[in-house]
Structures are given as structure tokens and as C-alpha cells.
Amino acid sequence: MVAVSDGRTSAPASARTRVGRPLLSLALASMMDEVHAHSGAVYLLAAEEPVLEMAVMAGLPRAFAAPWERVGLSAPIPVAEAVRERRLVWVGGEEDMARHYPRIAVVLPYPFALAALPVATASTAYGAVFVTWPGSHPPQLSDRERDHLTAACDRLALRLERALEQSRPLLPEPDLLAAPVVGGTAGTLGTVEAARMVARLPYGLCSLDLNGRVTFANTAAAELIGVPVSGLLGTQLWASVPWLNDPVYEDRYRAALISQHTTSFVALRPPGDWLSFRMYPNTTGLSVRVTRARAVAEMNRAGPQPGDAPSRLVTISQVLTLAGALTEAVGVQDVVQLVADEVAPAVGSQALVVLGWRAGRLHVLGHRGYADPHLVERFDGLPMSEQTPGTHALNTGVPAFFDSREELERLYPSRHATPDGFAAWAYLPLIASGRPVGTCVLAYADPHPFPADERAVLTSIGGLIAQALERALLYDAKHQLAHGLQAALLPHSLPRLPGIEAASRYLPATQGMDIGGDFYDLVPTQGVAAAVIGDVQGHNVTAAGLMGQIRTAVRAYTTVGQAPEEVMRSTNRLLIDLGVDLFASCLYLRLDPARGRAVMARAGHPPPLLRRPDGKVRVLDLAGGPLLGIDGLAGYPTTEVDLAPGSVLVLYTDGLIESPGVDIEDALAELGERLGAAGQLPLDELADLLIREGANAQERIDDVALLLLRAR
Predict the structure, then answer these.
(1) At 183, phi and psi to the nearest 5?
(2) Which terminus of the chain has fewer CB atoms gathered within 10 Å of its CB, N or C?
(3) Closest by alpha carbon to 157, among 268, 11, 58, 55?
(4) What is the pLDDT of residues 125-139, one digit of tens each?
(5) pLDDT at position 195, please?
(6) Which of 696, 614, 702, 689 is nearest to 650 (CA)?
(7) What value, to the nearest 5°, has the Cα angle with vertex 120 and ends 116 and 122?
């Protein structure tokens, strides 16, 4: 087993301990019984990799949880979150699941409640447990249920710890399902007379176990369905009855078992008979009532054809949950990370490489699981004309599967020279909108056969990865362009000025293109210097372009010797003459450190802060005019401020003090307190201190620009 990386230790693989009886199954059954849950599972941390593996499941077929048999610790699902955060995770119902765990809600859109808990001691994480209740469970977990679950998981962790200390290996345990009863009618119902009574009923009755297999069917059900009783017993309806071979019908059975609510559906028995199936679930299976339905031809629902290929809902579930994961990827590295965290654990792969196609060559976009990265990176820039499994898969558009090293090296002898330590591979061509995007390589530590259904799943996943990667490549290209434009429009460095020390910071908004209209500049002039900071509306290329024009104009007007009020008036007229619909705030300073003075003009910009040498902080309430670009006749009066040696001026844009739910006056006061408490820090450290809160924020609704000036 592996540990969560928080300084606490982890249990090695030998913690899967033999204890003389099914420890996990008994613990899970007892836990479920105490809180009246109807299903659950125990996960154990895998050896030497951050993956949770399902060890035992109870109450429902394991197929229901197939997409989550193996999950990465970083996956956004309740059991992984419970281990990462060492806490109980509660999901109170269908809406709660859709809001917090949309990937699970896509695959299991049914009303049920779930609790996930870590199985851990104070120092070691062993795994996790989840239990579920029907949709009728209250939206909150009771204190009694919470206490029982927490205590049970703590007891299980201690038992695993003792078993580990005593080196007792734990053998695989069977899942806990009600045993199917496939036998005579009388045995099923208890008495022959009861069976005769059911047989006389005018509607069909049958019983399904938790795996969906028919354990009883009366004659009426067999006649309505059109299959003899002997042909139904021990089979799944959707497998033995061709016209019921539709994932929609199997989904109703899943919905009934998971939610423990009565469900129903209507199906067409060819050529034109509509039958109604109503399912009554409990924790041991389902009772199904089958009757003739009224004419429903107007429903315009085409029934499945007898010749349709069989469909496995497990396959659909896996593809759905992985599709949900990949839709969250933004950049290329997000795609690589999600494939590593979600796809690889789900299909049992231990390593992967994502190759991108560009200009006739394959380039390594990312890889995981390789002990020696150079083995992967030597293939960066590989021409598509080279005969390799990755290029061949992309050239032909056909996935390639190699069960063993011998099979790969027989077809590609050159692989003898580049052993990577793995024993089986799947090469998935990534093609989106008919265009090559790249190749995804999944590697397996042991020889791995690829049956037809697994190949179909991997091929479908390859298509999803291709679409996600195509979007990510486009996003990264736009993101790089935006950052290049922003970098070109802002000063690369601040000039050294006599008597003035300066530092600056810029943070783009996290919404939009990571580009905006905030700007700053420091302009040396004869004997004095000028500083400017401003903010153009918007977080897009238009705002950035206008910002560049304003910054250039201010620099030009400063260079020709205009006074501060004239610089502001000239820039205002320029903005109006450009005919744009955007406004800008601006703060302009003419600095004279030799005289210890600064002259300032303001156009709708937040007031600067001044920290005096004695540590006292003032908010400079400057006279000013309206935003630039509103009134061509506006004036911008100036204010002269003392700037004694050691004084620090803090110029900023409103993104530094504006956040949802926080009063601007309070934010400004808090900024002043941080400035006053900072002491005589070096200016770069002071800049980092003042901007730290904004830098750590996951979402910034506005850009942040900061310019600090200290009189020497």
C-alpha cells in the first residue's frame, strides 16, 4: 500500500493480511447493518502507487462500480477525497451528487445517499469505505450513523495495522450478495400451494437476484415474454430476450437497486405487442410484474432489433465517467494529468505517454510512470515516416495492442534497443474531426491480453482523449498568444532612477483569456521621473491593445515635458479620438526625490497609500477628474505630496482590493494594516507580501497591478 503524502506513513502491500476469516467482508457487513445501509465497498491502497483498489463490495453487483474499481488518489470522487483529506465525505442525494461529483452523477443518475470514510490510523492510511442508502434517506447523516461509521472504520484500521505487524497476508474475499435461488417453483416460494396460486394469476411475475438473474418466473410471465420458463431461469432478461437487449432496460434495473425505489418501463415485443415491466426492489433482489400495456405507438420509440449486437452497460459507464473527467481538462498538461489519474487506473495501466502531432512529427506532450524519463524523451520529434508502433497507429488510424514484449519486438525489432521495463502496450491513435492530434500509449507492467470488449473501451477512450487534447492544444496556443501580448505591452523591467527604488507585480484575472487592461510604467526624465498606473475596462485583447496605446501616449507626453495635469488631459482626448467604447482609470505621478516631493493627478483611480518613515500609513485623498474617455473637456487637478526619504508609495489597481462580499473600505484598511506592519522590508519582499492573497486566490475576477516606489 502507499500513503497519502502528508508525512504520515503508509502500509506496504503485505498489509493485505490473512486473518483466518474474511476481515473486510465481515467489517463491511457489520457496518452496513449498524446504519441500515443497502450497499457498500471497501477500498485498499495499492502497493507502490497512489491508487485505491476495490477489495470487496456488498449489497450490489460489482459491475455497478466498474468505472471505479481502481481510482487515483487525486480523483474527484468521494472515496479518494476521504483518504486525501482524512475525513468523512457525505453526499445527501441526487442533486448533491450532481453538484459536487458530476462524473459519478453522469453514470449513476439515481436518487441515493452516500458516505465515504478513510480507513486510517493516526499515522497510516490503509484505504477507504463507502456505504449507500436508498433515495428515501434524510438529506443529512445522523449523529448516530456518523459515530457508528467512524468507529467501525477506526476498528478496521486497527485490525489491519495488527495484521500488518504480524505479517499475516490477506487473501481475496468474495463480494457479499444474496445467493441466487434457481430451482423449482415450489422451493422458490416455500409451498406448492403458493406456487399454484402465483401460476393462476393473470399477469406475469418473476424474481431477479442482485445480479439481474431470473430466479423465478410464472407461466404468465413466460408466455408474455415469449421464452419458456426454463429459458429464463438463471439468465438476465436483457441477455436472454433479444428485444430486451437495450441498455435503457438494464438501466431501470440498476436504478431500482441503487435507489430502492419502484421503477418501471415499457418495451415493444415484436411485432407490435407493448409490455409493461414494474420492478419492486429490496436488499436481496427485485420482484417484477409483467403486464400488457396500452397502445403506445404514438410514443415514437423504436424498439431494438433482434440482430443488434449485445451491449454492456459497464462499458458505457466507463466511457461516460472518463468523458466527464476529460471535459474538465483545460490545457495540455491537464489532459495528461487526467489521463494519468483517471484513465490509466481505470484500465489497469501503470504508465503512459501522450504524443502530439505537429508538422509531420510526434512530440512528447507528457508522460507518467517511467523510472527513466530519457527513455520517453528520446522519441520527441520522431518523424511520422519512422516505422514505430506510435507512428503506425496514427498513420493508419487503427489502434495497436501488444499483449507481450515478444509480440511488440517481433513486429518492431528496433524496440530491442530501447527496453522500458514494461510488458504490454496499447497504442491509441488520437484523431479529432478527421485530423491527427497525436497518439496515447498505455503501458502495462505484466503481459496483458486485450479482449474484444476491452479494445472497444480503449478505442472509445482514445476518441475522447483526442477531442480533449485538440481543445487543450488550441487553448494553450491562445493562452501563449495572450501572455505574449501582455508581456509585450508591459515593461520588461523597471529603469533604475536616482533617489527612487521601485518594484512591480502583475496578476491576470483567472476568468477570460488571462489578459487584461491593467498597466504600469516608470519613465525617467530630465532630473525627475514619472510613474503611471491604470486600468482599462475588460480582460481581452481589445482591452490589452488599448492599454498599450495609453501607456505609449503617457510615455510620449511625459517625454515632451507636459505637466501632470496636461498629460492626463492629452491622454483623455486621445482616448476619445480613438472612438472606442472603453474607459480607463489612471493615476499619474511626477516624482522629484531631490526635493522630497511628488505631484499627482488622478482619473477615477483608487487612491494610493503612503507609508511614512515612522511606519504610519495614510490613504492619499487626491483631487481628480472622471475616468479617461468620458468627457473631452474634463480637467485633472493635481496634488502635491511630501515624499521624505524612506517613504513608500503604493500604487495599485482595484483588483487588489475588490473581491465578492468584501467592502472596499474594509479591504483598503486591511491593505494599510499589512503595509504598516511590514516594517522596512526590501521592496520586492513587500510587493510579494501585499499581493500574496490575490496570488493565492483560485479565482480572480479582475487583474491586479501593483507598483511600489520608495524614496531613498
Answers:
(1) -165, -155
(2) C
(3) 11
(4) 999 999 999 988 999
(5) 63
(6) 689
(7) 130
Q: How far is CA 577 from CA 1, 48, 91, 386, 420, in A?
A: 69, 66, 58, 58, 65
Q: Is it the case that residue 547 has pLDDT exceeding 70?
A: yes
Rounded to whole angstroms, the Cα distance separating 129 from 28 reads 8
Q: Which residues, at least 6 apart from 513, have a Cβ–Cβ distance to it below 8 Å?
A: 478, 479, 482, 539, 540, 541
Could you give the CA distance from residue 372 to residue 515 in angstroms, rounded to a whole number?
A: 37
The string of DSSP letters for 387-424 reads --HHHHHHHHT--EEESSHHHHHHH-GGGGGS--S-SE
Average pLDDT across the chain, whole number: 83
Q: What whole-number distance in Å separates Cα of residue 554 and Cα of residue 575?
A: 11
Mean pLDDT along residues 401-416 = 85
- DSSP one-letter string for 114-171: EEEEEEE-SSEEEEEEEEEEETTS-SS--HHHHHHHHHHHHHHHHHHHHHHHTT-PPP
**Is there a contact between 642 and 597 (Cβ–Cβ < 8 Å)?**
yes
- Beta-bridge mates of residue 294: none
Band (274; pLDDT cuts 50, 70, 90): confident
Residue 420: predicted pLDDT: 80
Q: What are phi and psi of 609, to 5 degrees?
A: -110, 145
Neighbours of 192 (CB within 10 A): 12
Rounded average pLDDT over 433-442: 90
User: Any idea what the Cα angle at residue 489 is, between residues 486 and 491, rounded to 5°?
Assistant: 105
Query: What letters, b where the CB count within 10 A reaches 16 and e where it falls short, cover 35-70?
Result: bebbbbbbbbbbbebbbbbbbbbbbbbbbbbbbbbb
State pLDDT tens for residues 192-236: 666 666 766 778 899 898 888 998 888 888 889 999 988 899 998
Spatial distance between the Cα atoms of 465 and 463, rounded to a whole number of angstroms: 5
- What CA–CA distance (Å, rounded) separates 152 from 478? 51
Instruction: Give the global pTM.
Output: 0.51
Half-sphere exposure at residue 492, Cβ-oriented, CA atoms within 13 angstroms = 2
Using DSSP, state whether 13 is helix, strand or coil.
helix
443 grid coordinates: 503501458
CA distances from 370 to 352, 373, 404, 443 (A): 8, 6, 18, 10
Q: Which amino acid is at 216?
A: F
CA distance 674 to 690: 7
SS3 98: helix
At 382, list the grid cell. Answer: 520522431
